[in-house]
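for the writeup, i need someone to sanity check this before i put it in the appendix. the sequnce is what the collaborator sent (i think, or maybe the updated version? ugh). structure was predicted straight from it, no edits. if anything looks off just tell me and ill rerun, i have time this weekend
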Amino acid sequence: MHLSIKTVSIFASDIIIAWSNGTRNYIPLRSLRLACPCAGCCGEKDALENVFVGQTPALDEASFKVVSYEGVGLYGMRFFWKDGHSDGLYTFKLLVSLGKK
């Protein structure tokens, strides 16, 4: 069965995702942001597997507030953070794993 998102509810400090298989994930927004998978936040590998990481951004209160979100294909989500960051594409697999911690 293909996993898809039924609903997304964003609160002051958490996000709740209801999945098509009947499960729900509760993810703290802080954990969601710190797990951002974009190249700027977690690095990018070249052909020789060398990892290049940009300068760690200074995070403040706005860094942990979601302004909006959008689906990405049939596999993920993109979050728009209050501090302007929006580069990370969170796969469903990543979102499920963050909800299990």
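The two ends are 24 Å apart (CA to CA). The first strand starts at residue 5 and ends at 10.
thx in advance!!
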